[in-house]
Known about the structure:
Elements: H1 6-21, H2 27-43, E1 62-67, E2 70-71, E3 75-77, E4 86-87, H3 89-100, E5 104-109, H4 115-121, E6 126-127, E7 141-143, E8 148-150, E9 152-157, E10 173-176, H5 180-188, E11 193-195, H6 198-206, E12 212-216, H7 217-226, E13 230-233, E14 242-244, E15 247-249, H8 253-268, H9 271-285
Parallel strand pairs: 1-5, 1-6, 10-11, 10-12
Antiparallel strand pairs: 2-3, 3-4, 6-15, 7-15, 8-14, 9-12, 9-13
The structure holds glutamine.
Amino acid sequence: MKKVTKTAALVLAMAMAVSALTACGGADKAAETANTEAAGAAGTENADAGQSSAVTTKTEGVLTFGTNAEFPPFEFVAGNGVIDQYDGIDIAIAKQIAEENGMTAAIENMEFPSLLIALENGQIDAAIAGMTVTEDRKESADFTIPYYTATQVMIVKEDSDIAAAADMADKKICVIEGYTGEICVQDMGYPYEAFKKGTEAVMELVNGKCDVVVIDSATAQKYINDNEGLKIVEDASAFESEEYAIAVKKGNTELLDMLNKAIEAKLADGTISELAAKYTEEVTAE
Length: 286
Ligand code: GLN
């Protein structure tokens, strides 16, 4: 590498810092690549930002996002959501991006492991689902720049003796099917039981049928607020940082560019951190 622009060098340095931190789920290289691509997107900033003429969507004038509305505070079903019955940080971001580009946003709710297949099939234009960028997933979809950093944590009963990931060795572990939490526990070589929904796994824990649930940090916070007698145990050396990004069908560079520009702007002007704070408070206050 001989000549790099200042921004590209900075982004690369950030990407390296991120990759040094990441571990299970194969998220390490993915984060680096995503950030390097972000440098490209930032470098091609042009005068037509905000126009969506180059973007072709499944339904004209509609940006169809797939999600799995079982992941508060990012996506959940509410009485009166921002898009139909759907609400959360991701849903609010989706709505804003569509509208700022002259489209309306639509949500297709499905199981988490179906999202990347739905992208390939053209059933949805993009997947926004608190989805961690991993090397594996990058084989079947393209990812935007990351918009949120999370980590896996352990939810246990308040009186549990689990204080680190290694303490799960002889415990009954619950995860959610297809989530990075499942990949982490698999990588550690521990047996586990996988559930379709976070709420189901947490119910097992509450009912004493499992000892620990491994799930993303912000969602874990919601579950411990909703259920008495649970606490969160973190282990930064076992579960390192993960980056959430929006996925598009491989090769859909027009849509990827549009989404990257929007995310970049929303990170820079504080919109995403405001939404994260708002929905985290809301779910906590319930
Ligand atoms: N971040 C986790 C993953 O990507 C969980 C995402 C989700 O359930 N929506 O697997």
